[in-house]
Amino acid sequence: MFASIVVGTDGSQTARDAVRQAVALAQQLGARLDVVSAYEPVSGARLREEAQQVPSDLQWLVNPREDVDATLREAAEEAKAAGVATETYARQGDPADAILDVAEERGADLIVVGNKGMTGAKRFLLGSVPNKVSHHAPCSVLIIRTT
Questions:
Q1: Is the pLDDT of residue 20 over 60?
Q2: 41 near 64, Cβ under 8 Å?
């Protein structure tokens, strides 16, 4: 039914809930899981400042996407612990676009997103990640209730 699942995460608790449920679903179905996280580039001045505060042998860790790499690593470790084949994707820019792009590139059968941002009047505003994903997805979308 679903051989390829894409889930987006920003490291928040609600995103972790969506990842956890995507991992469980992938495990039950024997599906591959692609985990996506978007980031905005960090300014060069901030990177230089942070690099000066780190020992020289660890300065390579200071990069424009260090936070997103940690978020992806955490999600991948959870999936791998459950025996789920996993790939991670860090994409610069809009989170919804990142999820949609990876789903299209990977030929995903299902996208899993949390419902955060879809309650009350906010659900009518453009820009909500689950709202945008649900309207533009190249495949089925499962919106997990995380709030």
A1: yes
A2: yes
Assign 52 to helix, strand or coil: helix
- pLDDT band of residue 86 (cuts 50, 70, 90) is very high
Q: Which of 48, 41, 45 is nearest to 66 (CA)?
A: 41
Query: Which pair of tokens denotes residue 44?
Result: 């060069």
Dist. CA 144–CA 88, nearest whole Å? 20
Closest CA relative to residue 11, chosen from 85, 59, 64, 76? 76
Half-sphere exposure of 139 (CA within 13 A, CB side): 23
Q: Which of 147, 114, 109 is nearest to 129 (CA)?
A: 114
Amino acid at 107: G
pTM over 0.70: yes
How do residues 36-61 score in pLDDT, each as one tens digit?
Answer: 999 876 666 665 666 566 555 544 44
The type of residue at 34 is: D
